[in-house]
Amino acid sequence: MEELIDRKNEIVMKLLHYFITEQDYNPIILQGAEDEIWLENLKSEYKIIRIVSGHVHNNEQLDFDTFKTKRVVKKIKKKTLSFDMKVLSIFTDLGDNVKLEKVDGIDSVYLYDTDDIKKYDFVEEVFPDISKKLKFSEDGMRLFMKITSDINRKNKKDAQMVNDVFKPKVPYVTYVLIAINVLVFFCQMFFAGVTSTFAVWNIGVIKFHEFYRLFTGMFLHANILHLGFNMYALYVIGKQLEGFLGRTKYVAVYLISGIVGNLLSVALNNGNFLGVGASGAIFGLLGALLYFGYHYRVYLGGVMQSQIIPLIVLNLIIGFMSTGIDNFAHIGGLVAGITSTMGLGIKYKSTLSEKINGCIITIILIAFLIFLMFQHQF
């Protein structure tokens, strides 16, 4: 074992220990990548860390390495829906005549030993504690065992968190919401005046201050087809999102999105407008799923590109091209779903500042729509 831990292996192990256990980077599995390890942390300034242990003989080989790196980064950006992806390449074995230069989007350093990190101010600006954390009292076999144990412990903790978020859960709240919508629809069928009394009526809300309509209108439907389509969408989206967000946050997003969607509808629809439907709230769930998927895009990046985003775009296009569909409610619900989820936070991902910003944005959005709503003249 002592022979296996040569200079390069020791540097690589220390770097892996630091970036995985201290900076929350995760390994990226790449096919065909030899003598290099890729790590990602989409919240760090350097979203990608490359640790290259293979020998780079000359500048031509370095240029080819840069070309390959850019090509791989382009694929990762597409998969993770990232627009900017700064890379730090750490080389441990360079030829004497190889000259490292800054390339657009890629910073490079050469470490013959870990103390060499002090030569690169731009790295220590991003990782102020890296010099200190790369020092170990252990060496040889003891160093290998410590680093392996720490990394395994960190990976186990990360796996438990991911499992906690993604493990299947019974969507009780979604079932309750569907039951309420169905029950209210039967009330509409058997009791005259339910729709006219509780629907989203812009004149009633603005002129007669019947603000309850902004809430009750999201539980009414025009016909059985309207109800069936919305409840199917609620079941498909809700049974996943309820588990991802948790029941309390899920209900909050649903209600906030429905109310904000109805606010935008009242504010922008002219004339004597009467609206019903849960679609604003459901679009809010799509917005929440979009925000959640962005934070967990390492796991859901492909699903977002192939399913979530196309579904949102397609439904908005259908709304604009069809009559009788209140796309204002859809857009308002979608935006509120994103901002309210930002304010409520994503488990294990959201920071306090993100939550505060989300709450502020949601409050400003609601206040602006209320102001806009009362500019109507009848």
Low-confidence runs of at least 5 consecutive residues: none
Give the class-level CATH name of the largest domain. Answer: Mainly Alpha
Seen as an oligomer or otherwise, the chain set is single chain
* Count of extended strands: 7
Q: How many discrete domains?
A: 2
CATH homologous superfamily of the largest domain - what is it?
Rhomboid-like
Structural class: alpha/beta
Mean pLDDT: 91
Q: Roughly how many Å is the radius of gyration?
A: 27 Å
Helix percentage range: 55-70%
Shape by Cα distribution: elongated
CATH architectural category of the largest domain:
Up-down Bundle
Q: Characterize the largest beta sheet: strand count, sense, and whether it forms a barrel.
A: 5 strands, mixed
Percentage of β-strand residues: 5-15%
Number of helices: 15
Which sequence of SSEs, written as H and E, runs from N to C?
HEEEHEEHHHHHEHHHHEHHHH
CATH topology type of the largest domain? Rhomboid-like fold
Strand arrangement in the largest pleated sheet: 1-2-3-4-5
Distance between the termini: 84 Å
